[in-house]
Amino acid sequence: MANPAPLQADGPVVYILFPCYNEEEGLEKLLLRIQRIVRLKQWKYRLVIVNDGSTDHTREVVESFMGEMHVDFINFDKNKGVVAVFNTGFGHILNASVHPEDVVITIDSDNTMNPYVILDLMEKIREADVVIASRFVPGGMMIGAGYRAYLSYLAAFLMRWRVNLPNVTDYSIFFRAYRIELIRHLWKRYQGRPVEGQGFSCMANLLLRIYDMRPDTRFGEVPLVLRYDQKKSKSSIRIFETILGYLKLAYFRSQ
């Protein structure tokens, strides 16, 4: 297959950020589907894949796509955690982005999230600043989640009870779209660390930071069916650390 044509300087770019930790099976399936989507829509795009010290063949999977798609690969020799992954990925994207209408999409790499929901995110971002793929709006749900479902419902309950951001029901999901200029302002405000927090609660804290910085931020959501039954790798979530992080956010609004 021929190498992808180089990106042009004019016009917005869709950046898709993937955090990876031992996702060789899920990531390959996900990238094949992403490849179809960007061809269908003919977007200017770039994939930014951050390998967080994987010990399987995640790196080789990424490298196998680098001649076929626009891929920037960032490799950590050791596992650094989700905070470091997102801060590094956002920083890389901000350095590359030149158009004020660029969009950043973040998605988990385990193929539990239908990438065709990206089409819904991109449609919704026309009238919003942040769009979340939510399990808790009509049409959204979790399948095969087990104990993770209880943790997700607990996090959603705490955030909606204590914080209740406008038009937000799902605070912990990775799958979102952001306007690039919003991330750029957040990056400057927090001196290169827009993402901060304990465990996966850092994703909820990111929403709180955005709202505190700009209370007029337009949040939106689209439904997501999260398929944990398709997950092949072990979960990397640290349960007690994450629960503690949500409790701190709910009661102390960690900044």
Summarize the SSE layout with pairings:
Elements: E1 14-20, H1 24-41, E2 45-52, H2 58-65, E3 71-76, H3 82-96, E4 103-106, H4 117-124, E5 130-134, E6 141-143, H5 147-162, E7 176-179, H6 180-189, H7 202-213, E8 219-223, E9 225-227, H8 239-252
Parallel strand pairs: 1-2, 1-4, 2-3, 5-8, 6-9
Antiparallel strand pairs: 4-7, 5-7
Helix pairs in contact: 1-2, 5-8
Q: Which structural class matches the secondary elements? A: alpha/beta
For the termini, the CA-CA separation is 47 Å
Q: Helix and strand string, N-terminal first?
A: EHEHEHEHEEHEHHEEH
Tally of contiguous helical segments: 8
DSSP, total strands: 9
Based on CA atoms alone, the radius of gyration comes out at 17 Å
Strand order of the largest sheet: 3-2-1-4-7-5-8
Q: What's the overall geometry?
A: globular
Average pLDDT, to the nearest integer?
88
Major beta sheet, specifics? 7 strands, mixed
Can you tell me about this structure?
With 255 residues, this protein is of the alpha/beta class. Helix content is 40%, strand content 18%. It has 8 helices and 9 strands. The strands form 2 sheets. Strands 3-2-1-4-7-5-8 form a 7-stranded mixed sheet, sandwiched between helices. It has a two-stranded parallel ribbon with strand order 6-9.
